[in-house]
Automatic annotation (TrEMBL):
Keywords, ordered alphabetically: Membrane, Transmembrane, Transmembrane helix
Protein name: TetR/AcrR family transcriptional regulator C-terminal domain-containing protein
Species this protein is from: Streptococcus hominis
Domain Transcriptional regulator TetR C-terminal Firmicutes type per the UniProt entry, residue ranges: 85-174
Pfam families from the UniProt entry: TetR_C_8
Record SUPFAM superfamilies: Homeodomain-like
Transmembrane spans: 135-154
């Protein structure tokens, strides 16, 4: 868990710790990075670290949430799902280094948690009626899984594609399912 808040000094310390995490990740496996290592590289005291974070993984969780907040704020003034996907693709393209560290540390669940915090907003963007909570939940998690799978594949392919190319790949992927569209009557429901 993190406890950064809106204090400018705490935010600056969090950024210094993230930069230190990036440096250390080049030297050793994520699981081997200690708070002492972070203190040594960042100059941030152990007590300050513990005021902000419980463990090094929380630095990544904090950054994921900051990016999701940015995506949601940018989206709120625009409105549709395609715009949401575009903003999301560009934000993660800009933050590829963080995404690499998340994947490298085997912590992709941090991204799921960040998305889940904004489930109702995202469902609004994609114009899903949340009256049917079960259906809305399935749609949300299928879409989030698709987005995160796309980001993981992008990492696997050395981040060669630009955001627009990622969106095109996603659109082509969803078109693969079009032949399987059937009404409830056709499938016996």
């Amino acid at each position: 868990m993190y406890h950064v808040g809106n204090d400018k000094r705490k935010i600056e310390s969090a950024h210094l710790l993230l930069d230190s995490l990036f440096q250390l990740s080049k030297q050793k496996p994520f699981a081997m990075i200690t708070i002492s290592d972070l203190h040594r590289i960042s100059g941030i005291s152990r007590s300050t670290f513990y005021r902000l974070f419980d463990q090094p993984l929380d630095i990544l969780a904090y950054q994921c949430d900051i990016i999701m907040e940015d995506i949601i704020q940018l989206q709120e003034s625009n409105g549709d799902y395609f715009t949401f996907l575009t903003i999301m693709a560009h934000k993660w393209y800009e933050n590829a280094k963080l995404l690499e560290l998340i994947v490298w540390s085997q912590s992709i669940d941090l991204l799921y948690h960040s998305f889940a915090k904004y489930e109702s907003e995202i469902l609004t963007f994609i114009k899903i009626d949340s009256q049917d909570e079960v259906l809305a939940s399935y749609i949300f998690y299928i879409l989030v899984s698709s987005l995160l799978g796309t980001l993981q594949a992008w990492m696997k392919h050395d981040k060669k594609e630009k955001p627009e190319e990622l969106l095109s790949i996603m659109a082509r992927t969803f078109k693969l399912f079009e032949p399987y569209k059937k009404t409830n009557e056709e499938i016996g429901l």
